[in-house]
Structures are given as C-alpha cells and as structure tokens.
Amino acid sequence: MSANQNPSTSIWPGKEHRRLIVQEYGIFIAFLLLALILSFSNQYFLTAGNISNVLLQTAINGVLAVGMTFVILTRGIDLSVGSVAALTGIVAASFATTSATAGLPGAPYPFYLALAVGLLVGLACGAVSGVIVSRFAVPAFVATLGMLSAARGLTLIYGGGRPVPALTPEFRWIGTGSLFGIPAPVILLAVAFALSWWVLNRTRFGRYIYAVGGNPHAAKTSGINVARIRFSVYVISGGLSGLAGMMLAARTGSALPQAGIAYELDAIAAVVIGGTSLSGGVGRITGTLIGALIIGVMNNGLDLMGIQSYYQQVLKGALIVGAVMLDQKRNQGE
C-alpha cells in the first residue's frame, strides 16, 4: 500500500461490514459449505434421488419449525409439537382407515373430513396452550411441557395404545404422492413457508409478532393486544403440528402412538440454527427453512457415510449450543 493510499478505501470490507455480512448471510454460507463438503465426501449426495430424499426428510420437521418460529419470535417455546403431531395423526388416521379398529370411527369417510378433524385437533391443542400462556401467565415452558404429556396420554387413550393401519390412498397422498414430479410433503412445506413469510413480512399481524417479542411492555403501551398475539402464535403452531402429524402418518402408512417423540428438539434446533433469537423479536422464516435443511442434509450425509445416528445427535446438540452462543454474543454486542 502506498503512503498516499487511504486505508479506508481498501477493497476489503471493514470489520463491521464483515460482521454484518456474516450476520445477514452466515446461515446460507454455512448451508452451502456443508453441502459442498458432503458432495465431495460421497458421490451419491448430489444425485436427484438423494436430493429428493433430503427434501422429504426435511418436510415434516420444516413444517413444525415454521410454527415454532412464530412462537419463539414472541419469546415463547412450544415443547408439545411432537406429541400434538402424534395425537392429530392418530385421530385423523382413524377417519381415513379401511380397517375397523375397535373403538375408532373407521372408514368410509371423505378424505377432506379426516384432514379437517386432524387440523381441528391440532388447533385445539394450540389454543389450550395459548390460553394457559396468554391468560394465566404460566411460563411457556411449563404450559407446553404439560401439553406434551397430556397430548401423548390422549394419543394412547384414543388409539388404545395400538397403531391405526390401512390408511386410504387419498389420505396417504399427502405423505407419498406427488404433483408435477414434486413430492406432496415438499409442496405442503413450500405452501406453509410461503404463507408464513407473507404473514410475518407483509401483514400487520406479523409486525405485531416482532413487536411483542422485541419488547412486550412497549407493544402493550402502543396499543397491541399482547395476550391475543401470544394466543395466536400457539394456535398457529398447533395447526402446523396437526398438518405435520398427518403428513407423518400418511408417509408411514400407519399412525403410530409413539410417533413424534423428540420432534420438538429438531424443530427448535432448526429455528435456533436459522438465526431466530430465543430472546424474541429477531429472526426470519427463511433462516428457519435453511436451518431445517441443514439438519436434513447433515443427517442424510452422515447416513451416506455410514456414521451411526448417535453421532448425529451429538453434532445436532453442538449446533444448537453453538447457535445459542452466537445469539447471546450478538445480543451482548448490541
């Protein structure tokens, strides 16, 4: 560098600029690097069949994570999504089975009725959690932990502890079908993502969610009904849990009472890895989608390399802790 050259005119971005770039695009860069590493590690990773498999594996967790994003943006948490998914799956399946299982409705029922019943069950579970959190000021961790246990118990009671098999082809389509060559679960994830992006970025309700998560006292002072917003996000999470539960049952062809165990951990991981702050008010739905893809790609890549699932859990835990540490560091820097 010459003596007359001003360091500030260097072509390299400054430290603050680099920090903003990492903060804005870090999750996308991390995803691309992971995909690049795995593509060199295994020749089958970038094949069309494997990419389709990754998207299918990501779809259910992605739908759960989209709902979880709404909750975490308001400084909440929903530990019940896995259990609610199991409950909605087995209830909806009981209206879409060709087997007259003892004590269950059985077929024939219209395809749309099974979907409607499943969504209503999910919405109802979310509404119960929402009322407990918003009206009775019970911490979200406690309220949704209670719903986790209650929904799992209701799943066992409703199905008698048995799976619901022999689902109709119409119902199974949402888990195994395709449209124009695109798997149905991927389409449902894309629809959930697009609608959620529009709500959070283009509606007043979305702005209120960020406001409540950023500073609930200021939001209340400015006229926002904080209790209603908090109630609404749990209803959204419950509804999407219902959709995910039906997708899971349709994909496996049988609704299992033990389905969805620990699914809440993957959903929370996707949201946190995607950059949504546990402190509320900061995050993007696009980050959540990339976070879910990172988990799906990581699991798939490790499977292709023959690495046991136990190590996947360790890596996933490290990713969650690392993402939270980065979030805390960013908050302290602000």
**Distance linking N and C termini:** 34 Å
Structural class: mainly alpha
Question: Helix tally?
Answer: 13
Strand order of the largest sheet: 1-2
Explained architecture:
This protein is an all-alpha fold and 334 residues long. 72% of the residues lie in helices and 1% in strands. It has 13 helices and two strands, in the order ααααααββααααααα. A two-stranded antiparallel sheet has the order 1-2. A hairpin with a 2-residue loop joins β1 and β2. The longest helix has 27 residues. The two termini are 34 Å apart. The mean pLDDT is 90.
Keywords, separated by commas or semicolons:
mainly alpha, single chain, globular, about 325 residues
List the helices and strands and how they pair.
Layout: H1 15-41, H2 48-73, H3 81-94, H4 111-135, H5 140-159, H6 169-176, E1 178-179, E2 182-183, H7 184-202, H8 204-214, H9 216-221, H10 226-252, H11 263-273, H12 285-304, H13 309-333
Antiparallel strand pairs: 1-2
Give a nutshell description of this structure.
The protein is mainly α and 334 residues long. The protein has 13 helices and two strands.
